[in-house]
UniProtKB/TrEMBL annotation:
Name by which UniProt lists this protein: Beta-phosphoglucomutase
Keyword Nucleus listed: no
Keywords, in A-Z order: Carbohydrate metabolism, Isomerase, Magnesium, Metal-binding, Phosphoprotein
Residue stretches in coiled coil: none
Gene assigned in the entry: pgmB
Organism encoding this protein: Alkalibacillus haloalkaliphilus
Keyword Ribonucleoprotein: no
Family: Belongs to the HAD-like hydrolase superfamily. CbbY/CbbZ/Gph/YieH family.
Length: 229
């Protein structure tokens, strides 16, 4: 039986849902600039790095088109300060359903567990959730030169573990994240709707359906065997 050697998880939308906190932080910044954003627009920011998200928001107002890099970096820092303040409200109760049991099962099987997040606050979030000890390695935005959908976030983790990419499973909820997993030649598990994640090699509607045995069966049937051909 072929088993994967590493699971690499996204953070937001997979381990916990901090999307609302990101939205509140971005909205506070946008409001201060006289720019209006809503939750529908916020969907475009999921899985996207901080500076790229800022550029998307600034693009809504032509008057902000000539801001200096220094000013943009200051705005990105301001948003992050808002977000970190909001992070003080999260706890173990904010771990998404099914994740704690899945992590426990993976570790019992002796499989490495990594985190691949676009957030520079990933370690802080895991500490707040009291999950930091469940992860063998953490990749955040500070450790990669190219964010998702580039595969570097995931290949960085696999390289750290010293395992082949085809021996890894990546779990993502964002289209750009699934693209990154696929581009890394890993087996992609998507959490979300079929409409949003048609390119996921295995998909569930929500984290309660992330069953270890089902994921492994799909990996063995459609992952390793297909990539080995």
């Amino acid at each position: 039986m072929i088993m994967p050697k590493a699971f690499i998880f996204d953070l937001d939308g997979v381990i916990t849902d901090t999307a609302e906190l990101h939205y509140q932080a971005w909205k506070r910044l946008a409001d201060s600039l006289g720019i209006t954003i809503d939750r529908e627009f916020n969907e475009e920011l999921k899985g996207v790095g901080r500076m790229e998200s800022l550029e998307k928001i600034l693009a809504l107002d032509p008057k902000q088109s000539d801001l200096s890099l220094e000013r943009k970096e200051a705005l990105a820092t301001e948003k992050n300060d808002h977000y970190v303040d909001l992070l003080g409200t999260i706890s173990e109760d904010d771990i998404l359903p099914g994740i704690t049991d899945l992590l426990k099962t993976i570790r019992q099987q002796g499989i490495k567990v990594g985190l691949g997040s676009a957030s520079k606050n990933a370690t802080h979030v895991l500490k707040e959730l009291k999950l930091i000890d469940q992860f063998d390695y953490i990749v955040d935005a500070a450790q990669v030169s190219k964010g998702k959908p580039d595969p570097e976030t995931f290949t960085n983790a696999a390289d750290h573990f010293g395992v082949d990419y085809v021996e890894c499973i990546g779990i993502e909820d964002a289209p750009s994240g699934v693209t990154a997993v696929n581009s890394a030649d890993m087996f992609s598990v998507g959490v979300g709707t079929a409409e949003a994640l048609p390119h996921a090699e295995y998909r569930v509607d929500n984290t309660t359906e992330l069953d270890f045995d089902s994921i492994i069966q799909a990996y063995q049937s459609f992952g390793v065997s297909a990539k080995a051909e």
